[in-house]
Hints:
mainly alpha, 6 helices
Amino acid sequence: MSYLIQAAVTLVQFTVGIYLVIVMLRFLLQQVRADFYNPVSQAIVKVTNPPLRVLRRLIPGYSGIDWPAIILLFILQALEICLVALLVIGTIPGPAGLLVLCVAGLIRLALFLYIALIFVGVIISWINPGAYNPVTILVYQLTDPLMRPVRRRLPTTGGLDWSPMVVLLLLYLGMTLIAAPLQDLGHSLSGIPFRLF
């Protein structure tokens, strides 16, 4: 791969990846019913509204799930995969492989996001416990649904909260046992002779 193609792949992955993270955050914030009036939430809504407004005219939400956001996530993930494949091998994956690669990519992104959020939450609790700011509130609102069930089952030892370690272990297992096999299946179905993503 030439340096120019490497630079183009990095640019595609960075630009599409950043927007993917923002849309994924919006979806997750809606699922946990996070504070809509939080300034960070407002910024995320403002950035993601233009494409979602278009999709909402075509696809309604159903059963409390924001289907337009899910469709947008799939579109963005498919766009990233196709652009990278075109740059590197000059062709796009087959439909079945592309679908599985999209599912694997989105699962991996959600797991990575939660891993990062839990690390941020742990660092905040060490440096400035009880701090009140918009980012801290959203971090706790996003991670609490994962931490609460584990916290209830774990005994407290010496005032230490072991739930972040347990949840992080489960998330890493999810990467190994769910995202990685799906990614390998997507590559085999797509007809790409080597691991591209």
